[in-house]
Design a protein that fits this description.
Layout lengths: L13 E7 L6 E7 L20 E8 L1 H15 L27 H11 L6 H8 L9 H22 L3 H5 L3 H13 L22 H11 L3 H6 L2 H12 L15 H10 L3 H5 L3 H12 L15
Antiparallel strand pairs: 1-2, 1-3
Length: 303
């Protein structure tokens, strides 16, 4: 990673930053902040004493954009505690709060002791009851849950364009599926709450990394999600070769060498496959001499 010093005076709005290891300059922590003094404030990880090892990855962002990029980078580099990568972050980042945190036995014990003797308010009880699967939606329960609906679930449902009461009656895990479908696209409003018990192709695992890659390559996210791993690797290889736009997604079923030949010599796959090895070499020789178009294929030798 580039260790060029960061001019922090030019860092604007919300930003995403990371801490680098001195031995190999790989990131070991990713975070977001609104103020520059946050990068050296108290953290759960060691703060580099040399500020050259603190990098600003993205700046000039809204809070939601910064959260999304934080989630992307954490998913991209992976976490040590989950065995998926090199970061020491303990959560998946963004607005997920503690989502993905790995709890040790000691942490569970401290948390249990802190909750011992705690009394829940009626409002908290109502919110907890809303997450129970299969509980009958009685008039009394509707009345008890109304404050929760008005404050949290109702705005969510109205934003997504789904039926408010039907959405609020869902258990928590299904609400998350609806929210994921809305966030990541690919569903019409009327389809957001259909087949929630079936397979959800918008699960959290690995999704943010794929969506971030689609944004990087300038490819429609829905189309990118339909590709298999081999096709995504081809796109990554082409991108590193300098290809952009439609060139990234053309002839994904072909190897890089053939796809590059079709593009360079402006011919179809059928035309290229009809040539012998010697004829292909002749086309390549003519192209190097400056010939283009039909001149590349004019009166090619038979062998």
């Amino acid at each position: 990673m580039d260790l060029k010093p960061v001019d922090w005076s030019k860092v604007e709005c919300c930003f995403v930053y990371c801490y680098l290891r001195e031995k190999d300059q790989t990131p070991y922590y990713v975070g977001i902040a609104k103020r520059r003094d946050r990068i050296t404030a108290h953290h759960t990880v060691h703060i580099p004493p040399n500020r050259a090892y603190i990098r600003c990855m993205r700046s000039g962002l809204t809070h939601k954009e910064a959260q999304a990029w934080e989630q992307f980078y954490i998913a991209h580099y992976g976490r040590k505690d989950t065995g998926t990568g090199i970061l020491r972050n303990q959560t998946d980042g963004g607005e997920t709060g503690g989502l993905g945190r790995v709890w040790t036995e000691e942490m569970r014990k401290r948390h249990s002791e802190a909750l011992t003797g705690r009394t829940l308010s009626e409002e908290c009880r109502a919110k907890l009851s809303a997450t129970k699967t299969g509980q009958a939606m009685t008039p009394a329960r509707r009345k008890a849950l109304k404050p929760y609906w008005d404050e949290v679930a109702r705005p969510q449902a109205e934003k997504m364009g789904v039926d408010v009461e039907a959405y609020c009656a869902l258990p928590t895990e299904l609400k998350k599926k609806v929210v994921d479908r809305f966030k990541y696209g690919g569903f019409k409003p009327e389809d957001l709450m259909k087949d929630l018990d079936g397979e959800n192709r918008y699960e959290r695992a690995g999704l943010r990394q794929k969506l971030g890659a689609a944004e990087k390559y300038g490819i429609d996210p829905d189309f990118y999600l339909t590709l298999n791993d081999k096709q995504r690797l081809k796109i990554a290889g082409r991108y590193s070769e300098g290809m952009r736009g439609e060139r990234l997604t053309q002839h994904l079923d072909l190897n890089m060498r053939t796809a590059r030949s079709l593009e360079r010599y402006e011919c179809t796959l059928e035309q290229w496959n009809s040539l012998t090895t010697n004829q292909k070499a002749k086309v390549k020789h003519r192209w190097k001499k400056g010939l283009r178009g039909a001149d590349l294929f004019y009166q090619l030798p038979d062998s």
